[in-house]
Amino acid sequence: MYKVSIIIPVYNVEKYLRKCLDSVINQTYPQLEILCVNDGSTDNSEKILEEYSKKDGRIKILNKENGGLSSARNYGLDKATGEYCYFLDSDDWIELDTIAYLVKLACLNNVDCIVHSVKNIPEDENCIQIAKECQDWFDCKNKPAGIYDVPLNINNEIAAVAWNKLYKTEFLKENNIKASFFMTGGWVKQYPNDVKAIYEQGHDLGNHSANHKNMSSLSNEEICNELNTVTENVKNLTSYQMNLFRPPYGDYDNHVIVKAKECGYFTIQWSVDSLDWKNYGVDAIVNEVLNNKSLKPGAIILMHNSAKYTIQALPKVIEGLKEKGYEIVPVSQLIYTDNYHIDSEGKQIKNEQPASSQ
Fold it and tell me: In terms of pTM, does the model score above 0.70?
């Protein structure tokens, strides 16, 4: 029997936590590792975890400083030892046969990830089924048990979140790649659920300006307005404070960089353009990235979510970068934020510390 690691981020959820834990410890599938990541809770959540850990030895409490939902999930994933893992939010619960059913399907079909349907339960317990179109694909009541192809336009409330999925742990750890998504104001307003999903997956949320204007032609006030409008909208959706800015069209000058910094942003420019926006095809994107003369440690690769062939090209690009020995990290982990200068090519150079005198 395969072990399943259930990872539960916990932060100030004393009202819901017992119902969540009861649904886990009473699963019909017994081979569980229950990792409860206490993300710096200030209410009685930690006491509840301790109470349950005494009742069920499968519960492990992992305490950490508050870092947000994605940080807690990744912390739990690092500690997971099960062949499969499942993320469960601490204000949710699952049916008692959920894990048994998902493991059975995963084993029978040898797949890396199984997705199941969900229900939104308001506090008045009036059950409202969300993403109705997903039920025909995910709910065993509507289709025989089995594996089905999921439409690409499936509702992102179901498809793009970490929870409601059983993963092969090895697959998730090998492919747990984080990137930086730079968003315009219009995109944030049109796709709020995507913004939330990107945040929940632990990626950088970057600012691409409100209206995609040539920033070098704007006044100081206009530059700040272009940036702050997007940041406020994203913060309202996710609580995330943006501090990375990529100028539209790559249009920037010293004035833009200085003003953006005064407004609280580090200005970012790419060094390798995949040219995916030209829609030349998958092989063209892969070759442009992997054989680019500017591909070197510290390179920033530009790709677009709306380009025709990017989704198909991305796995090959990632595989090729790994084969060349590169580690893929988000921009926030790549750049210096202090004690540096920029050379004539726009590269950050860490300032050398002066030698101490004896």
Answer: no
Nearest Cα residue to 8 out of 112, 102, 85 = 85
Question: What is the DSSP-derived secondary structure letter of residue 349?
Answer: E
Res 156: pLDDT = 47
Whole-angstrom distance, CA of residue 72 vs CA of residue 80: 12
Single-letter residue type at 132? K
Strand partners, 60: 35
79-88, 96-105, 348-357: segment of lowest average pLDDT:
348-357
Q: What sign does the CA torsion over 209, 211, 215, 219 have? A: negative
